[in-house]
């Protein structure tokens, strides 16, 4: 993203140390921060000389306290174009709902990972404000650790899941590649949950948005006095997870020096914290995820060939949502069911007009983006069924063109062709089987039972109808 000194972030926080950290993080993406420690000063800043330059407000919920939502409403009345982000230590979804209904764009739970904050701030850029709904919320539905939560019948997707399930039961390191939002972190957690190390320690280490020295200390640890600012000894994640699993997210952003250190750790099984006189014997398994294909990075020298070889003995590629659009109805039903179970939410269905709109979009943010859009729609929609009107930003982007019937008929199975004649029975049967596989999340025994046929009969029909089930 291009840097723009005119973008000012107003920080409302009564903790100076936290304000400095947030300001430093925001500066990496070109933001200049203006920090105040109370609401009165915040209002003065918004109406003052620099007020017009303020593009986003980050307010710590503890400052206005119980009146946080009223304060957000006040900001939106004064400056409706400003993006407001709430920062809180509370994990209650009720607060998230109230804050968003009051006008907050996003909702971050402390401690905030750097990439979460930067993602939220990027949505606040005025040039993309009309599409704010289409960017990921940082905190929404809790992650689920089961393979059953990975919904979809697309051939490439099911192949990836089958490969992951097999790899989970093994002992080697695993590399998962795929665009942001395709479910890599969720898959890594599901793999750990299904592995022989399921009851051991697991930790997520993100390589994005962190200074190289800080990331190296987080991974490998350091001794007290090892460098300026090392006031205490820090045990690294690799050492903490001895006997367990480390989920290494955004591995493509790991610095070359740290990559070489990690190669040495994996080869020797010994991690040596910075400044330590000796190393520590460890046994860790690594599931690494990358938003970019690593092989081209190895070719141009920006990623260690040795580390790639260590991680990619098993390599899994998750397809983007635009390449598995037929899974959108099943994913939509699944997310709506999950959201409906959250405190403060009601259960929503989706009308075909809404589903057709979802299917017509390309989803650059993939499954995570779809989840976010549904979450926002459920927050604001008072009616039971979500329609095209429940997604105004999507409608604005896609226009009012007639999108026809839902491509995958997520609310049922399409019986008629465009010319009014019935579709062939074989096609209808194939759609029903696909629908059942998606609805029961690939559990083939359950699919066969619900369809009233034997499991062997189901697999025969899959072969006859050309439906590939890799699960």
From TrEMBL:
It holds the Pfam family Response_reg. SMART domains: AAA, REC. Gene3D superfamilies: 1.10.8.60, 3.40.50.2300, Homeodomain-like (1.10.10.60), P-loop containing nucleotide triphosphate hydrolases (3.40.50.300). Residues 8-125 form the Response regulatory domain. Residues 150-379 form the Sigma-54 factor interaction domain. Keywords: Activator, ATP-binding, Cytoplasm, DNA-binding, Nitrogen fixation, Nucleotide-binding, Phosphoprotein, Repressor, Transcription, Transcription regulation, Two-component regulatory system. The modification 4-aspartylphosphate is found at residue 60. This is DNA-binding transcriptional regulator NtrC. The lineage of its organism: Bacteria, Pseudomonadati, Pseudomonadota, Alphaproteobacteria, Sphingomonadales.
């Amino acid at each position: 993203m291009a840097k723009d000194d005119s973008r000012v972030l107003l920080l409302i926080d009564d903790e100076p140390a936290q304000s400095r950290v947030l300001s430093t993080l925001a500066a990496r993406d070109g933001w200049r921060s203006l920090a105040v420690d109370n609401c009165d000063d915040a209002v003065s800043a918004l109406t003052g000389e620099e007020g017009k330059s303020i593009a986003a407000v980050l307010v710590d919920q503890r400052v206005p306290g119980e009146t946080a939502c009223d304060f957000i409403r006040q900001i939106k009345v004064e400056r409706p174009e400003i993006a407001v982000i709430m920062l809180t230590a509370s994990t209650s979804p009720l607060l998230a709902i109230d804050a968003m209904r009051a006008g907050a764009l996003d909702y971050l739970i402390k401690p905030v990972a750097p990439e979460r904050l930067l993602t939220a701030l990027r949505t606040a850029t005025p040039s993309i404000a009309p599409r704010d709904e289409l960017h990921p919320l940082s905190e929404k539905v809790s992650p689920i650790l089961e393979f059953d939560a990975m919904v979809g019948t697309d051939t490439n997707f099911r192949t990836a899941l089958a490969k992951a399930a097999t790899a989970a039961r093994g002992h080697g390191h695993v590399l998962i590649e795929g665009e942001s939002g395709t479910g890599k972190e969720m898959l890594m957690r599901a793999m750990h949950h299904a592995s022989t190390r399921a009851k051991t320690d697991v930790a997520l280490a993100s390589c994005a948005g962190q200074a190289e020295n800080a990331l190296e200390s987080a991974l490998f640890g350091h001794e007290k006095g090892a460098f300026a600012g090392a006031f205490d000894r820090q045990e690294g994640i690799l050492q903490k997870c001895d006997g367990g699993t480390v989920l290494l997210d955004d591995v493509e952003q790991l610095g070359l020096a740290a990559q070489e250190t990690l190669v040495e750790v994996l080869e020797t099984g010994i991690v040596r914290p910075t400044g330590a006189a000796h190393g520590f014997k460890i046994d860790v398994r690594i599931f690494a995820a990358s938003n970019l294909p690593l092989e081209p990075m190895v070719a141009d020298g920006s990623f260690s060939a040795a580390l790639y070889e260590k991680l990619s003995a098993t390599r899994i590629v998750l397809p983007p949502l635009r390449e598995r659009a037929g899974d959108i109805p099943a994913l939509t039903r699944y997310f709506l069911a999950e959201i409906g179970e959250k405190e403060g939410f009601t259960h929503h269905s989706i009308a075909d007009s809404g589903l057709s709109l979802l299917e017509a979009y390309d989803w650059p943010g993939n499954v995570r983006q779809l989840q976010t859009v549904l979450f926002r729609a459920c927050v604001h929609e008072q009616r039971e069924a979500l329609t095209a009107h429940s997604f105004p930003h999507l409608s604005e982007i896609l226009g009012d063109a007639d999108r026809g019937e839902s491509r995958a008929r997520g609310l049922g199975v399409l019986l008629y062709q465009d010319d009014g004649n019935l579709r062939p029975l074989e096609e209808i049967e194939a759609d029903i089987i696909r629908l059942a596989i998606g609805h029961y999340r690939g559990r083939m025994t359950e699919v066969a039972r619900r369809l009233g046929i034997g499991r062997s009969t189901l697999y025969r029909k899959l072969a006859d109808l050309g439906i590939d089930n890799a699960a």
